[in-house]
Amino acid sequence: MDQTQSIFGMGAKKIATLALLAGVLVGLTAGGIAGYKYGQKKGENKIKQDLITTTGGSTEINSFYGTIKSISGTDIVVEAHIAPIAFLPEEIRMITVSISDITKFIKQVNKTDEELKADQKAYGKALQQGKSPFPPVTYKTSKLKFIDLRNDDSIQVVTESNVANLTQVTALEIMLLPN
Question: Which residue of 112, 114, 125, 176 is most buried, as measured by CB atoms within 10 A?
């Protein structure tokens, strides 16, 4: 009986030791992965900052576009697309946009063919006269009211706040974009 107990006791010790080694190995692997991801994120942030500095871009972002997900009272929840500069991928996140007394609402409407032809003609004439006009745009704007906004509308939001790291802002202007 003593020999059987010592065999089982010895086997239990081996199993416990193996389980402890497996736990340590799993812990070291998980720590290594977490450290790698932390380093990767830190490196990405450094690259972003270097790109912004190199291209003369701003680290302050005062506008974004997105899709309205919900409207409640004077707050709009927007699935926002935010890009610090053109070379970087957009970050997509939810931002709550608060409406104030100074918020302007406008709608972007596509111009008619006649309006586009007239703009193109005026642009061509200005070029012939040696001027440097801006090329014509394909849309015009008109006033809008807050109650005209609906879920799934595409909007552009302009704010005084730097939205780079915020999840809530107050809008200066909201433009409803054409679908």
Answer: 176
* Chain position carrying tokens 């012939």: 128
Q: Which H or E element spans position 22?
A: helix 2-55
pTM over 0.90: no
Cα-atom radius of gyration of the chain, to the nearest Å?
Answer: 29
Element (H, E) at 44: helix 2-55
Maximum Cα–Cα distance across the chain: 111
pLDDT in tens, 31-59: 767 666 666 666 666 666 665 566 555 56
Q: How many CB atoms lie within 10 A of CB 33?
A: 10
Q: Which residues pair with 115 in a beta bridge?
A: none
Its sign, for the CA torsion 161, 163, 166, 167, is positive
135: helix, coil or strand? coil
